[in-house]
Amino acid sequence: MVMDHNVQRDPQTYAIIGAAMAVHRELGHGFLESVYQEALEIELTKQGIPFLREVSIPIYYKETLLKTTYRPDFICFDAVIVELKAIDTLSSKEEAQLLNYLKATKKQRGLLLNFGNKSLQHKRMVLNLNETS
Description:
The protein has helices at residues 6-9, 11-27, 33-46, 92-105; strands at 51-53, 57-61, 64-70, 74-76, 80-85, 109-114, 121-126. The protein is globular and about 45 Å long. By secondary structure, it is α+β, with helices and mostly antiparallel strands.
């Protein structure tokens, strides 16, 4: 097993990925996304990782509040948007979705976690708000 060098740079996302790996080890692949959401909620609690699940996030267009809201699967440590998938493989579509969620929430870090494969797929994304307009 290769040690992830990001653990020292970002122990929060490393901890979330570890919790997701525990869920994937226990359940494997093939369940619906909702099963993994519920199991990850249990694992995050067990590991003492603070989170909110599916809270409503407002979306603005030119400073006007839209009726549509975004409900991320999890916000962990009040700083990391966590989006779960249970699909064959992650694509640029899911990455774009997470990027938009980061912009909408003004959070800088996000994780895509895909439980739909034989081994857990994870993608960490960082949004530099100074470079994105």
